[in-house]
Amino acid sequence: MSSSLTHSGPPKARHVRWLSLASALCTSTLAAHVHAQDADAEPPAAAAPEQPAAPEQPAAPEQPAAPEQPAAPEQPAAPEQPASTTTESEAAPPEMDDEEELEFSATAEVTAPPREPTKHTVDQEILTRVPGTRGDALRAIEIMPGVSRTPYASSDQAPMLRGSSGDESLVLLDGAQVPLIYHFGGLTSFFNSNLLERVDLYPGNYSARYGRAAGGLVEARVRDPRTDHFHVKVELSAIDSQALVESPLGKNTSIALAARRSNIDFFFKALVPEDAFSVLAAPVYWDYQAIVVHRFNERHKLRALVYGSSDSLSLQFSDSAPEDPALRGAAEAKMAFHRAQLESINKFSEKVEHNAVLSVGPYYGKQNIGGISNEFDYWDVNLRSEWSVFAHERVRLDAGADLQFLLGNGRYVGPAPQQTEGVPGNDPLAGEKYVTVDQQDVVSIRPAAYAEASIRPVDPWLIVPGVRVDYMADGRKWTVDPRLTSRLNVTETTTLKAGAGLYSQPPVYYQLMDEIGNPDLTPFRTLQTSMGVEENIFKPLSIGVEGFYKHWYQRVTGTEGGVDPHFENAGTGRAYGLETLLKLQLSQKSQLFLAYTLARSERNDGNGEFRLFDADQTHNLQFTGSYDLGKGWIVGARFRYVTGNPMTPVTGSVYDATTDTYRALYGATNSERNPAFHQLDLRVEKLWQLGPVGLTTYLEVMNVYNHKNIEGTMYSYDFSKSEGAQGMPIFPNLGFIVEY
To answer: Which helix (H) or strand (E) holds 269?
Structure first.
């Protein structure tokens, strides 16, 4: 492609998003376009935190993501009650916990009925073998219905669930929110998947114990370190290298340590075109995890976690881009966070349980490009406490409170921020008016309290009413969110389910600032409803179908021209659709998923007209399967077909003599689409067992038939010519694993 074309894609964070894009593209030999402006509870008592990650924004002082909210760690299963059976639908009425596990195991288990209408659970062993995800469990959740495909260049954002943006999703690790889920470019997540037990996906209508997220949530559950003997696992691949050790420390204590570092910097310079930029520091990411668990007895356990993640990149542009003179000189980005988390899990009696979590750590970052600078550092402290009382064999009560406290500093120089979605991002930076925001000792305090009851009037019927109350001290606003879910076991194999509730989310931090925002903004809200059926056709085969409707109100939108008060609660939105999941379990290592989502997501920016959401995807079809051939051989495949994302057409341009650049003229927002996305990924692995040592070799090929998926549009400097910006080409990844 010619370097005279500039890239049009998702408008969000368009002035710094290229940093993530650079890291992703380097692995697929597409780094020539980096200079473009943008690239298009376990058992119920284990409640989770309620704070959605602070969304990345177009041009704003990147300050702390809304503080992470710890949640009560997973705890021992609820007391066993009479009348249990071997089917999920007929599980014991009083054992009212969160489970709706998609159990991919040859062992049948008695699983208590779930509380949420939709909770998909997949264990770690299955997720780490999904083709096209490089064995990353958090990336593999895309095989589930209700999860939108994230554009290639924006794949470091949180998952988009049921027509919501990634900004409205909550991602948790054992109940505590993390600031960054993926490394630059979305190549891999921040946490070693070998230390995860499972991943729970709630695309909507989640429990009152969660909050501050208007969309859905994803929670990764950490497993306890092994207690039998010393274990070590080392993995080497083209993308990164990682090591894991775990061991018992005495009779009641165990420990696990893990670390990972990228290998991209070893070959990055060979891939980038010399006339685009010189590499000062190639993309590097690393992360680490430490887990210590001590079991006082069968009823009391203490878990301590320490984990962190870092990404860095530094480039020097050879010349300023002809389409945007502001893109010149050095460009750099560094993001890092560290967390210490302490979880107390207690079962005082067969009827009373208590869980508490304390999480604390720093998060800091620095980004510079073309005169735009963004620096921040902050500490957050998260505290949560929850009690569960089994008041009666048919009634369970859960109540708790959580507190988020944040203290930090930030400084930003760049264009004034716009609303987070629905804004084309093609115009050059040159000539834009810059603002300077310097925030010191910023304090944010957000307490919440909630209560929920699980009631079974008769054996087949479970009703779960709940309410959540949040206070946003920085905006001096209260929200009250009532919620209700219900499940009815019509037969031993058929379950009907439904849910409805309100969900609130605070505005993005910069939208509340006096200089560039509106301190009088209120939290925006969604009304979520869903209804569906689950059918276990026969033991290895099941199907689920669910319809949903979501309505946004008080959505934050930008004022025309960015005039005072800059932002208003003037927008609305709606999303609706149908989700289908077919599961076939042949053996422990052989299974098949067929997931299909038919949906539409629209927004109204306060002008009375609905338009398509930036990531509206009408059809999303996922076919994923793996098969155990025996003798250590396992093969797998994943095929995806997804409707192309909407785009705003450029109808012409005008010349700006003051900056010697052209500015685009646009048609109706999101009135056209990119071509449909489709891709086939394959994986084959072979295990050799040499006594106590296991040696595994795997080959994973992404985009096997090298389809040229279009993720955006590249325009010439005067917008008179355009061509598609291609996503990831065929990409093989060879890896080796040694385990003892």
So the answer is: helix 268-271
